[in-house]
Amino acid sequence: MKVTFYGHATVQLETGGKTLLFDPFITPNELAKHIDINSLKPDYILLSHGHGDHIADLEAIQKNSGAKVICIAEIAGWLGKKGIEAHGMNIGGSFTFEFGRVKMVNAIHSSSMPDGSYGGNPAGFVLYTNEGKNIYFAGDTALTYDMKLLADDNINWSILPIGDNYTMGVDDAIKAAAFVNCQNVIGVHYDTFPAIKLDLEEARQKFLKAGLNIQLPGIGESIDL
């Protein structure tokens, strides 16, 4: 199983012979200008919510790859009007795909589509993969006690926003890792905009002091899980 970071909150997960891409926002991100989205051929695209900094490259990548989109029901309806196949879900529901089971979980944020349409509720995902590892992609979220509901789900890796201002910051992300009972964290949603610039070494030291294995991969860098 491998994760590749493409900047902001965009990560790619390769598991069970399938490729999953989360929240594609690459071409508008100056930090990711060296990434060619035409090289990305996911089987699935998972969307946590409708903000432009999470779906900017959705249509281009989906049309280039034929990926099935997994998202909240309202976004699925919005995409359907564009001729894009999507599997709509809602908070608390789960569904089994080729690579494993996906559960849509709560996220505390906001959501609307780039054209101003209603984007439903923001969400996170828990993936119970066929490889036996469980991955929590929190999406854009504040720290919430709902995360404690995942404490018994044997989460192996948590992908958490750490940039503050729009989402949790480092300190709350550390608490989130404790809530979900997961020692392995991949930090996302930082440095893209001035309001979410981080001192990465300071952030790393905070996670390490808390006894967490923190990974902050460079854009385009992959790590084995």
TrEMBL record:
The keyword Flavoprotein does not apply. InterPro entries: Metallo-B-lactamas, RibonucZ/Hydroxyglut_hydro, UPF0173, UPF0173_UPF0282_UlaG_hydrolase. Transmembrane segments: none annotated. One of its GO terms (molecular function) is hydrolase activity. The keyword Hydrolase applies. Residues 7-189 form the Metallo-beta-lactamase domain. Keywords: Hydrolase. Belongs to the UPF0173 family. HAMAP family: UPF0173 (MF_00457). This is UPF0173 metal-dependent hydrolase GSY63_08725.
